[in-house]
Structure formats: C-alpha cells, structure tokens
C-alpha cells in the first residue's frame, strides 16, 4: 500500500505502532455508530485494534484496489483517522465491480478539513490506479459525511434501498470528471 502525501497529511498504511490510536478512535460510539450496521459495539482492547489493522492489510492482499490508510497530520506526526476504498458485495449476488470510499476521524480532529483533504487525495489515487467510479453510502441522517461528499463534488443520488448493506442509504457516486 503506497503512501500518499497532501499539503498537510500523510496517508499511509496502519502499522502495529498505531494500535493505541486505532483503539482510541474506534472506542468512541459516536464514530463507530456511523460506520456499519447495528449493533454498534465500541472497540475495547488492543488485540481488537491489532485485528482491525490486520484486516486492512488482508483486504489489500486480496484486491490491491482495496486500501485503508491512516490519516496522519504531517506537522505533528499524529494519526487522526482513516480513509478507505473497499469492494462492495451485493446482498443479492456477490461482487459486481463496485467499490466504495469512506472516512472517519477522531472527533478532536474534526472541523479542520482533514477528512476532505484525505478523501480527495485517496479518490484521485484510486482513479490513477484504474478505478473509474466510487460509491459513497451513508446513513441518511449523516450530515457531516454528506457535506463532505458534496464538498468533493460527488453526484448525489438521494436516499434509496442499500443493495450492499440493507436498509436505507443516502448515496453519492464520484468519477474522475467530478473530482
Ligand atoms: C464524516 C466526518 C469525517 C466529517 O468530518 P469533518 O470534520 O466535518 O470534515 P473535514 O475534516 O473535511 O472538515 C470540514 C470542516 O472543516 C472546516 N475547515 C476548517 N479549516 C479548514 C481547512 N483548512 N480546509 C478545509 N476545511 C476546513 C470546514 O469549513 C468544514 O467545517 P463545516 O462543516 O463547519 O463547514 C466526521 O464527522 C466523522 O468522522 N464522523 C463519524 C464517522 C462517519 O460518519 N464516517 C462516514 C461514514 S459514511
């Protein structure tokens, strides 16, 4: 997984040295409750953080388009969140070529534009790597994430049934002309 540099950030693979930070971010209910289907269970141990980091590397090994990168603020060397590209698997029939991008920050790092800066660079890198479209799905009431997708210039498709996770989702898609 290659590193990506932006004006303020280093986007790089997570390592074992990030375990405590991964635990600190994923132990916060108000972060993880937006990332998956319920039940939302905050992370509790360093062993779980290690497993989370290992899974990011396993996904990349299965499919190099899949990347989960730490968002490190270059000036202070602190990891404040994660940005990712992952394969989407349809509930009714496996993988049909769709990938999603997503992001999350420690709340202390919000409001500074870090997630937008990271997502823009990650998406550009994914397009450079051969993907031609990314889906962005979120709970319909996830206003901060929707605002971020709009800042990126993603095309808003509205709220619909979620073919990958079930339930309802607010969907965006982004392709190179929109970035
Ligand atoms: C989604 C999430 C990453 C958005 O975080 P965020 O801080 O709003 O997004 P950014 O880091 O891009 O920061 C943008 C904000 O910083 C402000 N900002 C301050 N300095 C800035 C700068 N130098 N450059 C750009 N923006 C800056 C922007 O104006 C914007 O503020 P606003 O929302 O008041 O308009 C965050 O809410 C989160 O982690 N949520 C929980 C997990 C989650 O929902 N993930 C998505 C699942 S679909």
Automatic annotation (TrEMBL):
PROSITE patterns: GNAT (PS51186). Keywords: Transferase. The keyword RNA-binding does not apply. It comes from the Bacteria. Pfam families: Acetyltransf_3. One of its GO terms (molecular function) is acyltransferase activity, transferring groups other than amino-acyl groups. The keyword Transferase applies. This is Protein N-acetyltransferase, RimJ/RimL family. It comes from Rhodococcus triatomae.
């Amino acid at each position: 997984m290659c590193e990506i540099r932006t004006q303020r950030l280093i986007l790089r693979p997570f390592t074992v040295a990030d375990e405590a930070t991964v635990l600190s971010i994923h132990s916060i209910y108000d972060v993880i409750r937006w990332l998956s289907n319920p039940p939302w269970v905050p992370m509790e141990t360093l062993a779980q953080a290690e497993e989370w980091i290992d899974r990011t590397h396993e996904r990349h090994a299965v499919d190099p388009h899949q990347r989960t990168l730490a968002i490190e603020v270059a000036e202070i060397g602190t990891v404040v969140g994660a940005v990712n590209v992952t394969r989407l698997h349809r509930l009714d029939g496996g993988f049909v070529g769709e990938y999603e991008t997503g992001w999350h920050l420690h709340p202390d790092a919000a409001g500074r534009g870090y997630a937008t800066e990271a997502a823009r660079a990650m998406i550009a890198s994914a397009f450079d790597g051969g993907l031609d479209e990314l889906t962005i799905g979120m709970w319909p009431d996830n206003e901060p994430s929707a605002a971020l997708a709009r800042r990126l210039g993603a095309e808003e498709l509205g709220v619909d049934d979620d073919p990958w996770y079930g339930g309802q989702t607010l969907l965006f898609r982004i392709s190179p002309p929109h970035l």
